[in-house]
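Workshop exercise sheet. Pairs work together: one partner reads the sequence aloud, the other fills in the structure field after running the prediction. Swap roles for the next sheet.
Pair: D.N. / O.F.
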Amino acid sequence: MKIALINENSQAAKNALVEATLRKVVEPMGHEVVNYGMYTADDAAQLTYVQNGILAAVLLNSGAADYVITGCGTGEGAMLALNSFPGVICGHVEDPVDAYTFAHVNDGNAVALPFAKGFGWGGELNLEYTFEKLFGFGHGQGYPKERVVPEQRNKKILDGVREVAFRDLCEILKDLDRDLVRGAFAGEHFAELFFPACKDDKIAATVRELMA
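Structure field:
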């Protein structure tokens, strides 16, 4: 699984810590981590949590990433931004129990973490244990066991609702403010990471057009 990490500007200073913790947990499991930044608080490209949503949607819908780890101060804004786009099911995850139940009950493809709220002593340990529960025990298996069948059924129903509720991502991107979208792709390493990994020619062409 290719896991993309995205940090917005208010919590960019924690990017190195989050990346190191994520790699420590998931690389021994065979997963790959790709860091899209922000890398420091002083990066030239300053991502907002809304732009995190745009970037995450492009990565997931194009196949450039299989999962997105993101967040903001509370995690709420990033979650709302990601869930504004088709092909993204983002959970708000504060602790290992949230991570485990989101993975097994909701079976999404992104999480938004609170990188400021409650992030004191043990913050990095909570991240480590959260990533272990998120990626170390599979996805979509249900919890508790007696709820497996209705939970899996409800997930399929939700997927069907979302197919009707959203329109084509490329159309959405072109209808958004051009500067807002261009800023989401302005990261220092975006182009070198995204285009070789992108599996959707239409999305790649749209991104190139919007970046021009």
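Discussion prompt: The chain has a mean pLDDT of 97. What would you look at next?
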